[in-house]
Amino acid sequence: MSGRSLTLQLSTPRRVLSFSLESHPPIFLAPLLASNPQSIHQRSSFSTTATLSVRANRKRDGNPHRGESALRRTGLRYPNGMSKQPLPQPVLDPKKRSPIIVDENHGLWGFFNKNRTALSTNKDSDQRGRPWTVEELRHKSWEDLHSLWYKCCIERNRFATEFKERKRLQLGPRVYRPINHDLAIRQTQAKIKHTLTERWYAWQEAWKVAENDPEVNLNAELDTPAYQPSALEDEEEVDEKPQAASGAA
Amino acid sequence: MKPTAALYSRLRRLPLTTKQVSNGFYKGTGTGAMGRHTKHGGYVIEWRKVRTYVVPEQLKDCKLTPFVTMQMRPSKGRFEGDPKGALSGEAYLKRWKIENGID
Fold first, then answer.
1. Residues in chain B within 8 Å Cβ distance of A136
2. CB contact under 8 A, A135 and B77
3. What does the pLDDT look like over B50-102, one tens digit per residue?
4. Which of these, A95, A185, A205, A230, has the minimum number of CB atoms within 10 Å of its CB?
5. Bridge-partner residues for B44, per DSSP?
6. Could you give phi then psi for residue A58, rounded to 5 degrees?
7. What 3-state class would DSSP assign to B45?
8. CA torsion sign, B13 to B14 to B20 to B25?
9. Of residues B41 and A75, which shows the higher confidence score?
10. Where are the transmembrane segments (chain A) (predicted)?
């Protein structure tokens, strides 16, 4: 600190004291305000020893990246091959960004709802109903039951996806309302299994009955019908079209 | 240390580990094997064990949903006093004669 600034600092407090304290900063800040800002900066180090020169410091390692830091944004010490290329600038305005192209028919859309949103609203989920009953499924064909089973699988996948997403977003109990839709779907699937098991047992029973039935030839050739109605009036009832309802046969 | 009864009951609710039981406990992942191990340390895939998923061809045209509307009451089967109910072979054969009769 130079002698001139010292004298300035010593002389200023008396002047400051004469003013009222309310409109001015406190007294202890007076030397800071009165002195020249540049003069308070330290010009030389306090240490009296000579600074360690680069050549004299033999403990220096040969690390070419010494001092490079991503946190302090120092950049590289030496230019590399990419130095002449301008860095890509992030587009902060979302409107100027190029749109993300997504395949409309991608299979992973099956994990989302119809609106393709991450979460369904409560209104959507309220529109679901009850599980199927066995009696309703007894009148369905094998193909229908097969398709319904896969529809159940898809719906369960959707539900599990949403459940995970709700958990990940940590939505509170007000937003997150656990509904036993998954249980209802699994009940439907159980009913499908029930129906098919019933059909299988009925088919086994029917085979035993047909063995003692004179109208049915179980060892018939492929081109001849297995059912030969004895009475003439029964022939009109025979439907030639194979129905899918007897798919288990 | 022997845990108190309350602590022990808490412990019972945790899944079983291999450390708690003697040998023979196989935890697994709920999935079956796809093959078998050979005596040389290899693994042979047995294609009869590999799962195949047959997706129905008319799945996209299927209009059935996993849920039935709440406005429809759950229906019950009526078998007209048949004690066998849906398992009746006679009823199955009768329907087969009417609807199919070929195969």
1. 68, 75
2. yes
3. 999 999 998 989 999 999 988 899 988 888 888 888 888 888 888 888 887 66
4. A95
5. B36
6. -85, -10
7. strand
8. positive
9. B41
10. none
Q: Considering CB atoms only, which of A129, A144, A239 is closest to B99?
A: A239
SS3 A216: strand
CA distance A229 to chain B (A): 9
- Residues paired with residue A216 on neighbouring β-strands, in sequence order: A227
Residue of A nearest to B102 (CA): A225
Nearest residue to B66 via CA among A248, A200, A123, A183 = A183
Q: What is the token pair recorded at A24?
A: 């001015």
Angle at CA of residue A63, ends A58 and A66, nearest 5°: 100
**A55 token code pair:** 């050549």
Cα–Cα distance, A63 to A40 (Å, whole number): 37
Q: How confident is the model at residue B4 (pLDDT cuts 50, 70, 90)?
A: low
Contact list in B for residue A238 (CB cut-off 8 A) is: 97-98, 101
Taking only Cα atoms into account, the Rg of chain B, rounded to an integer number of angstroms, comes to 26
Is the CB of residue A34 less than 8 Å from the CB of residue A8? yes
Instruction: Please calculate the CA angle A52-A58-A63 and round it to the nearest 5 degrees.
Output: 100
Tokens of A22: 């309310």
The more confidently predicted of residues A92 and B85 is A92
ipTM of the complex: 0.73
Of the candidates A38, A36, A37, A12, which has an alpha carbon nearest to the alpha carbon of residue A25?
A: A12
Beta bridge partners of B35: B45
Question: What angle, 0 to 180 degrees and rounded to 10, lies between the N-to-C axes of helices B89-99 and A181-211?
Answer: 80
Amino acid residing at B50: V
Residues 6+ apart with CB under 8 A from A32: A40
User: Could you tell me which of A29, A34, A25, A36 has the C-alpha nearest to residue A2?
Assistant: A36
Spatial contact of A140 and A188, defined as CB atoms under 8 Å apart: no
Residues 6+ apart with CB under 8 A from A221: none
pTM of the model: 0.62
Q: How far is B30 from chain A (nearest CA, A)?
A: 18
User: Which residues of A fall within a CB distance of 8 Å from B73?
Assistant: none
Of residues B69, B63, B53, B67, the one with CA closest to residue A147 = B63
Q: Do B89 and A207 touch (CB under 8 A)?
A: yes
Q: Take residue A236 and report the two structure tokens written for it.
A: 């009109």
